[in-house]
Design a protein that fits this description.
By secondary structure, the chain is of the alpha/beta class. The protein contains 9 helices and 8 strands. 35% of the residues lie in helices and 21% in strands. The chain has an 8-stranded parallel β-sheet, sandwiched between helices. Bound molecules: guanosine-5'-triphosphate and magnesium ion.
């Protein structure tokens, strides 16, 4: 288990959910700083967003297993108060920084900047940032990453994409997970894929079973890793 540290949001530090222009602008500026720092240090950062329990951590685990011999990987794991996922990922021998947001439903560029200070960027090639499970708030807060993945699963029903269009607008890859349960759930995977295409034709969709690892190679290919 390898958790570097826990970054805790100070009271009043997190950008509030009552979004105004200034908050979004401040976040965008910090995200740009993060982007520049990551570029300068040669770190490829990938956001992993998605609904609660959709399989974000499972996907990261599978990608870490497949990629850790090629890249020096680090993971930031955003959660309200726990370090459960951070510990799960840490078992794979990569550097993990847990970020606790307190009551907030998303990471922001400020918290990611604090986490970046705790990481040896010289010794990192690839950074996965798992956001808090949520399909709404993270869409508004870029973190400075190069690519964005959104994970949903068939167990959330047939309308997850159409109900949450904003998060898919900027997504490079949409992962539809738990395909092993599609029949039991009566969910049409092709419809979910189509819904993504209608929102953003450039978003690549990949279907996965993150328990077995099926489809994970296609996610990796879609990210050009
Ligand atoms: N049947 C099935 N179960 C899966 C699959 N992927 C993940 N799971 C299970 O779904 C549960 C939630 O998976 P996680 O990877 O923790 O999901 P998450 O999105 O990281 O969850 P939060 O971080 O809590 O929002 C776990 O019990 C996983 O084993 C899948 O493809 N098929
Ligand atoms: Mg998780």
């Amino acid at each position: 288990m390898k958790i570097n540290d826990v970054v805790k949001a100070e009271e009043g530090e997190i950008f509030d959910i009552e979004l105004d222009e200034n908050i979004l602008k401040a976040n965008a500026e910090l995200a740009q700083q993060n982007r520049e720092l990551l570029r300068k240090q040669g770190v490829k950062a990938i956001d992993v967003m998605g609904s609660i329990g959709a399989g974000k951590t499972s996907l990261i685990e599978k990608m870490v297993q497949k990629l850790k011999t090629h890249y020096r990987i680090a993971v930031f794991k955003g959660d309200l108060t726990t370090t459960i996922d951070a510990e799960i990922i840490g078992k794979h021998g990569v550097n993990v920084v847990a970020i606790n947001t307190g009551k907030e439903c998303h990471l922001d560029a400020n918290l990611v900047q604090k986490a970046l200070r705790r990481l040896d960027l010289e010794a990192t090639d690839l950074l996965f940032i798992e956001n808090v499970g949520n399909l709404i708030c993270p869409a508004e807060f870029p973190l400075g990453s190069e690519k964005r993945i959104v994970v949903i699963s068939v167990t959330e029903g047939p309308y997850m994409v159409v109900k949450h269009p904003f998060i898919f607008m900027d997504a490079d890859v949409a992962v539809i997970n738990k395909i092993d349960l599609a029949e039991a759930m009566g969910v049409d995977i092709a419809k979910l894929q189509n819904d993504v295409k209608k929102i953003n034709p450039k978003t690549k969709t990949v279907t996965t079973n993150c328990r077995t690892g099926k489809g994970v190679d296609q996610v990796i290919a879609a990210l050009n890793l």
